[in-house]
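FIELD: query
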Amino acid sequence: DSKEKVRQAKLISKHIRSLKNPFIMGADLNMTPGSRVVDIVSDVSKNWIIGSKIKRTTHPVVHKTVETFPDGLVVDYLFSSNDFKLKSLEAPEVLVSDHLPLVAEVELKD
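FIELD: result
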């Protein structure tokens, strides 16, 4: 992880910690799970991708990494406060971008 990406992740982390209301944040971090950048943001929020069945967020036909990572590459994330319960999460293979959309159904906890 570059110094600049870590700096930016720390800014996001600081902002998340300042939030007083429930939040959901989608992020194209261009970093894989377990990277320092992803971990910094995950430390202050719920990372819905970790532990999910999603193994690819880049489009398997048009993304430039398809040959390097034929089994998939996760670089897009969905984060939230602990105020939500995840009901479903998917990354449908539709051709709208070189990344797949993340589609989630969430429920606000009581």
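FIELD: remark
The CA atoms of residues 15 and 44 lie 10 Å apart.
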